[in-house]
Amino acid sequence: MQERCEESEGEAMVEITREIAQKVRDTVDAGLVRGLGKPVPGQMCVEAAVCYALELPHGDAPACVAPALRRLMIGLNDRPWSSPQARAQGLRRLAVAQLGSAGTLDEREFARRVVDMTIRQVVPAGLRAAASVCDPQHASALEAAAVRCEQEGTRKAAENAERVASIAKDDAADATAYAAADAAASASAAAAADADAASAAYAYADSASATAYAADADAANRARDHALAEYAEWVVEILLDMHAPGCQWLDLTPATSS
Prior knowledge:
This protein is mainly α. It is 62% helix and 0% strand. The chain has ten helices and no strands.
């Protein structure tokens, strides 16, 4: 996998138009790969696709995207989607919504909202995935921890979820419990820093796929793709609520029912 770029050097801010947003969408729809990739449609990551659409040098740090959002996008892009097409389908709306966020998005507030969403929605999903397969003696504690995260959305709730999931993990040694503990740990760390949205956890997807793994590998892939796409859509909802400029072109990528 090719190394990521730290910064875009000498890149001027480009005015984002509807035509550019459409070109970004079309480039993404060709397929996305893990890692930077090559400047060829279907063979690059989501942020490289933006650079390609803007006719910029090959890279993954387009100046029109806020750094905190860029880091989150790269983290989502590089998760283990089942295929380039699944990755593109899951990220196409967020790829458009991120456009023009640089200099306009309150990154600290964005990070706070992503952390809150992670604690209230992602961690409970992971805990409940663990509860569905772990020893029944831990199921009630996992559910209680999930409810607390939903109600409070606080660092303490995330830390409690991490402890409860870790106990289930150590006792059951189940892959889903491991993933739930990782999700809670990531969220509690993110809540402590309250800065880097990219650290706010993708282990929900691993939890979902681990639950499905008992059925078969294809089910695990479908569950992972669904969970990652759902996470991406939750981020889109945050950007909509924050009136991010790229959201004006989301009609180019209509939401699909899951």
